[in-house]
Amino acid sequence: MSSKIKFGTDGWRGIIADDFTFPNVRKVTRAIATYLDTAYKKDRPVLIAYDTRFLADQFAQTSAQVLADLGWTVKITERDCPTPVIAYNARHLNSAGALMFTASHNPAPYCGIKYIPDYAGPATPEITDTIVANIESASDELPLSNPSGSISIFDPKPDYLQFIYTLLDIKKIKSANLKVKYDALYSTSRGYLDEVLLHCGVQLESFHDWRDVLFGGGMPEPKGEQLVELVEAVVRDRADLGLATDGDSDRFGIVDEQGTVLTPNTVLLVLARHLIRNKGKTGAIVRTVATTHLLDNFAAKNGLQIYETPVGFKYIGEKMRETAVLIGGEESGGLSIIGHIPEKDGVLADMLVAEAIAYEGKPLSQMVAEAIAEADGPLYNNRLDLHLSEAHKIAVIESFTRNPPTDVAGIKVKEVGRKDGIKLYLEEGSWVLLRPSGTEPLVRVYLETNTPEKLTRIAQELEIAIAKLEAVAV
């Protein structure tokens, strides 16, 4: 079974009762423990948390028993918990890191586990590579019944909330008398985001704020198709804002007063502007290769350094630990800011948008339009998920790697990047990124350009070029 245990960009995920089983959880926990033995002394506790999924709490308890059997002091959360909350506590409690049982925004049949080191951000590749290397020799046996370590239950919420309140202008938000709709999507943010909103004096209506292991038959992903009820409520009651998070609350979902679900790219730009303009902050901007170049335009206009990283918040978090980062984020819906932990936080992201509205005193849609115009936008984005055979996928990546095109849809290629997949930097501020999936026969193609017509043209030309390579794969 260990051959099925694969760590992706953020830990190991699998289907419950297929590969995500109690024996495999014991095996992965022991592999993590072998790493912990090389990095920490046993006088530091190991924290464990979990999301709202089926059996996640039981998987967490199994992991706790294995670690206690190995002599570790284990502190397990009293209820399901957001990833940023356990990450904050991993640093705050001077721990040996935390194990988080979550499959984030994946469908209900999935569960996952990720290790969060004591610096409160995602484990970097050298750490996860070490853990993966330990899996093969790790045992999946049941732990002994008389462990040398101990297990206790703790509440991670008070210390996290106390810290979050230092990052927000609560007085300013209270003075705005905002009307907010919040869809918890049956996630871990219930009892956290709603509590912060009420503390900040908003008029609040909440939806789906209870545990449902099937997520209401949908997915715990704060995107348009999952937020229909939230959008309807915002428009019907003329609310200022609609908010949501994903399953483990590290990703945000934002609906403006017109009922438009904002893209993460747009939210990153609006919040970068808010942090500089309203809060007097400064620092670098960090984005992944797949994230909008409007941030580059914004950085250039404000004299800020811009950094581009591979996909995965672990790379953004790493940069946040190295230098002062104003905001770091990714198009998939994660961000963190200066003064916060190097981990994405959907609770904080949502609150920062509320804070921005309070400062500006204008509708969110107007703030979006102003931010885009100031960054020389708009730019238009798309992502194609091309389901290809494994041979076709390999042929596509090899072809674009060895012989990248000199132009795409008549737009000249200025530069070819190989930081993560193949990125073609085009003239006129356009770009194309091809990234193969590491776990399935899929190539993701990200596009950005300055008109909808060009976006369609670029997408069509790339699809034709990729289809032609199927013959090479045979």
Task: State the end-to-end distance.
Answer: 31 Å
Ranges where pLDDT stays below 50 over 5 or more residues in a row are none
| Number of DSSP E strands | 21
Q: What spatial order of strands do you see in the largest sheet?
A: 1-2-6-5-3-4-7
> Which overall shape is indicated by the principal axes computed on the Cα atoms?
globular
Helix content: 25-40%
Largest sheet: 7 strands, mixed
| Residue share in β-strands | 15-25%
Mean pLDDT: 96
Question: What would you call the structural class?
Answer: alpha/beta
Multimeric organization: single chain
| Rg computed from alpha carbons, rounded to a whole number of angstroms | 22 Å
Tally of contiguous helical segments: 16
Question: Mind explaining what this structure looks like?
Answer:
The protein is α/β, with parallel strands linked by helices and 474 residues long. The chain contains 16 helices and 21 strands. The model has no long low-confidence stretch (mean pLDDT 96). It is globular and about 70 Å long. It has a seven-stranded mixed beta sheet, with helices on both faces. A six-stranded antiparallel beta sheet has the order 16-21-20-19-18-17, covered by helices on one side. It has a four-stranded mixed beta sheet with strand order 9-8-10-11, sandwiched between helices. Helix 2 (56-69) links the parallel strand 3 (46-50) and strand 4. The longest helix has 18 residues, at 22-39. The chain starts with 6 loop residues before the first strand and ends with a helix. Helix 1 (22-39) packs across helix 2 (56-69), helix 1 (22-39) packs across helix 4 (125-135) and helix 9 crosses helix 12 (346-360).
